[in-house]
Amino acid sequence: MARISRRTLARAALSALALPAPVPGAPGNTGPVQAAPGATAGTGIAARSASGPPGPYRPPRATAEMRGVWIASVANRDWPSRPGLPADRQRAELIAHLDRAVRHRLNTVILQVRPAADALWPSPYEPWSEWLTGTQGRDPGWDPLGTAVREAHARGLELHAWFNPYRVANHADPTRLAASHPAREHPGWVVPYGGRLYYDPGQPEVRAFVLRAMLDAVARYPVDAVHFDDYFYPYPVAGQTFDDDESYDRHGGAFPSRAAWRRHNIDTLVRETAAGIRRVRPGTRFGISPFGVWRNAATDPRGSETRAGVQTYDDLYADTRTWVREHWIDYVVPQLYWHIGNADADYAALAAWWSETAEGTATRLYLGEALYKAGDAAQPSAWQDPVELSRHLTLAARYPQVRGHVFFAARDVAADPAGAMARVVADHYRGPAGPPR
Question: What is the pLDDT of residue 436?
């Protein structure tokens, strides 16, 4: 049989797209959907009564699919709402996010616990995050990650611990870091770039330290998965160079180019993280959420029919296609943060490309959704339509490789100004679903 092109698949899916009718009596586009007791269940989802904590109710099993939400802590994006809140207020805000996930019939929360070479648990390697107390290294008086794991599991939610491997600070002043910060103890590990500080991925001792720091959380807590985002080598900044000359001179001699060496460094981190997770807590999964374009087809015929200004293979030195094809990771969540029909990066074309990439592999494919764009007046007109995200799920359902979606992010689930999340729930999440295992 002749092979059908990705472009043909994408066009066919888009042309066949039929929108589900709104559910009579659903809350429509105005706010959160109230679930029936236990409606978010997967394997053992607990009901929440109006008067007390989760109970023992176990609803029937349903089809498994990822229904996830990211909770970003960096710069207090989603949680805590601001630094320096009392511990009980921080805890209450976190639990409110978990309860909201349950009401929206989600089954997974992806909590950022190492936003910038720091920690949201009592780490022996890195300081407490400044996003908790306002001062890096100050004990917040409670254990956010331990609480999150316990409270998520009590509600039948999976808890994926989200780590950023190499970002050190969103500023370029090492003296602003805690006095005990490893980046101050080892200044040679750090590269300033674009007004920020990063660990140098080209140094084996850096990679070994980063891995130890992350695996400490995996050893301490029964997290369901380890999660990386899209930051490896930093996104390019015009007119600036990431200065890893010394590392390249020491370690790059066997490689045909600096780019090949950098990709090797990131590949090694991915493989060693996967092996470390298996060693420390067998059964815990490993997932990555990369920028949505591996390479444009104009750059590489294996790439997507896109014209993106960033390509992970070339600009972030992240060979995401290989990670999927070789099953170095258990799941991938490409950030498809574009609308259907976008001229440079069409959601339909990318859904088709990632589906073909994942086909025949053991790597699960979920799609990252830009809920934060819905209703934002600064975004293209497609995002003013509250049905845009629902269309994404309808289109993706035509690809059996797509096993669910993750929404960015928790603050936007709560606010939902355009009613886009409510529409997704009404159209697609009418009943319970457990996460894929």
Answer: 86
pTM, full prediction: 0.86
pLDDT computed for residue 384 by the predictor: 97
- pLDDT tens-place string over residues 103-139: 999 999 999 999 999 999 999 999 999 999 999 999 9
Query: Distance of CA 244 to CAs 48, 241, 365, 411, Å?
Result: 52, 9, 33, 37
pLDDT at 183: 98
Residue 344 CA to residue 350 CA, distance in Å, equals 11
φ, ψ for residue 312, nearest 5 deg: -60, -35
Residue pair 429/38 in contact by the 8 Å Cβ criterion: no
Average pLDDT over residues 286-307: 98
Tokens (6 digits) for 120:
């949201």
Q: Which domains occur in the chain, in start order?
A: 65-428 (3.20.20.80)
Sign of the dihedral defined by the CA atoms of residues 289, 413, 285, 159, in that order: positive
CA distance 7 to 3: 12
CA distances 364 to 62, 292, 295, 375, Å, are 18, 15, 20, 30
